[in-house]
Amino acid sequence: MKKSIILTAVSLVGLAFASCDDFLNDNRYPLSQQTNNPAYWDNEANVAKQCEDLYRNFTGYGDSGYGLFYFQTLTDNQGSGVGGAFTNWSFTNIPTSSSLWRASYEVIRHCNEIIIKTGTSKLADKVKAKYIGIARMNRAMQYYELVRGFGDVPYVNQVLDTNSPELMGARTDRDVVMDSVYADLDYATKNIGSGSKSTWSSDMAYAMMSKICLYEGTYCKYRTVEENYKAADLQRANRYLNYVVAAGDVLMGKGYSLNSDYRSNYNSVSLEGNPEMIYYKAYKEATLTHQTIRYTVASTVIAGVSKDAFDDFLFKDGKPKALTSLSTDDAGVVKQGVIDGKSGMGQVLSITNVLATRDDRLSAIVDTVVCYGSSETGMTYSRAGSSQLSSSTGYLVRKFDNTSIPVNFRTGNNYTCAPVFWLSVIYCDYAEAKAELGTLSDADLNNTINKLYKRAGLPTQTVASLSTMNDPANDMNVSSLLWEVRRCRRCETLLDDDLRYWDLQRWHQLDKLDTQKNPDIRLGANLKNAVKPWNYMSGDYMMAIPNNERVFSKREYLYPIPSQQITLNPALTQNANWAN
Predict the structure, then answer these.
(1) Helical ranges in 382-422 per DSSP H
(2) Distances (CA, A) of 182 to 138, 218, 233, 422
(3) Taking the chain, what is the end-to-end CA distance rounded to the nearest angstrom?
């Protein structure tokens, strides 16, 4: 049974930014004399414009720069940071300020303004509900991102002024905030209505509900007092996991279907006709562009896929590396001349045969050629029209590249569109929620994971076959069934958005990012047959950024509260593991 939270009953708490002036008159959403005029909000076009400004909060591939796909390298999916630099924890010390804290509350303030002023306007009730739903959906996303980062945070559903006592209030219990997030999403699903795949819609709200409720359900199931400051709550976890199932049931009954080509979800100049898309960020040449392709085909050393991630992909017999009957030899073979249909490549280390035995998603994500340095290694390689390429792990990222786009746009302003909410992730959410609830059936698998397997060239599985797979690599202390569902999610969404880090956080598995405990996350390709080895090797395998270590401690599960916020408002207090 769905439980609604009456937002006005939630205790209002305050915020303190760099100054009260910054908070009350932020630059992103300035309050002009015009918007303070009640008549302004009686015009639907004006309200629509206020909501249109919220689109910028869906990062996708970024706005004229870099976004969340590929560039979120604090995971076990990539062997190092962008440009070959080492990626450490998000915070190694308590920061003075935080862009996440500030930016989120700026958006929340704008959403509150839309909700309150549209609610008192003369617009028709149905029209009011649509725009209030859009604002509440956006407010939900901001509070979700704050809570997963900081835990307890101030909750505000009003537009405060300098005399508001709530400015100096305390942090609100994160469970209370997340219940308000669900209430916002529930309202949004019922009131936004239909839209295109690049505009607001109730389907977008359902997809956001699936993502956020999966986070909340699993986080509450696996959290601990020592690291998350609250004990696990199975009843709460199951409630939120059932919300995931309910949202998935709606979306899977809407006529969406998997796109036949996995990679075209990520490198297409238009996604409007893609049957898998629920909401995507549209880019257009000379209007809104990004740099994702440019970076991954430039001469800068890219953050390559890790051996740990590479090894997680199943073999064509549906078995993991430790159990397959197929060859597990992952060493590249030196070739010269025409390589995989590309002429003039010179001498390269090809892994075409290695990829042929694996899940098809792997060959859509990494190139058929290993590239790990300059001409000094004897291995040079470039895609048509691009610079000589180099990867920190040898495994090159090809997932986002579109060679049909003119060279000047591939190496300049890219205009391929970015998925934000799409069906394959809903399938992963749904299967995981059901597996956590203990209700996953063969029919559920056929409606979700098996469809992803089929597209990936893998055999169909049953609950029984996954439950008895028993991969020796399972190091998460979960059932074989849940391990395989999580594996599919990792392979399906590799390099996508910032999903992997938050998956590990909600599963209570952030220690998997400790490079000392898990050395394979910094290893790369097998160079046994290479003409010349890389400078840093571990046996036959490349080692990315060998002189740095990322060591896990319990404080990593939540970010520290910025010190400036506590100075301005001592009622906020610091997260305990950062205060000690």
Answers:
(1) 407-410
(2) 12, 15, 17, 20
(3) 41
179-193 average pLDDT score: 98
C-alpha–C-alpha distance, residues 129 and 111, integer Å: 14
DSSP-derived letter for residue 63 is: S
Torsion of CA 93, 156, 161, 121, to 10 degrees: 140
Distance CA(219)–CA(467), nearest Å, equals 23
By DSSP bridging, strand 523-526 and strand 541-543 are antiparallel
| Integer Cα distance of 380 and 386 in angstroms | 12
Residue type, 579: A
Is residue 539 a contact partner of residue 524, using CB atoms and an 8 Å limit? no
Domains and CATH numbers, the chain: 11-62+90-174+554-580 (1.25.40.890)
DSSP 8-state assignment for residue 14:
-
* Stretch 217-246: mean pLDDT: 98
State both tokens at 567.
């100075």
CA-nearest of 203, 406, 386 to 297 is 386
pTM: 0.93
Classify each residue of 100-139 as buried b or exposed e, where b means 16 or more C-beta atoms within 10 Å of its C-beta.
Answer: bbbebbbbbbbbbbbbbbbeebebeeeebbbbbbbbbbbb
- The letter for the amino acid at 155 is Y
Phi, psi angles (nearest 5°) of residue 120: -100, 10
CA distances from 398 to 383, 388, 413 (A): 10, 14, 17
Q: What is the pLDDT of residues 108-117, one digit of tens each?
A: 999 999 999 9
Residues in contact with 483: Cβ distance below 8 Å, sequence separation at least 6, in sequence order: 469, 471, 474, 476
pLDDT surpasses 80 at 336 = no
- Average pLDDT, integer, range 556-573: 95
The tokens for 283 are 């880019």
Distance CA 211, CA 58 (A): 14
The confidence band for 169, taking pLDDT boundaries of 50, 70 and 90, is confident
| 299 band by pLDDT with thresholds 50, 70 and 90 | confident
H runs (alpha helix) in 496-548: 499-506
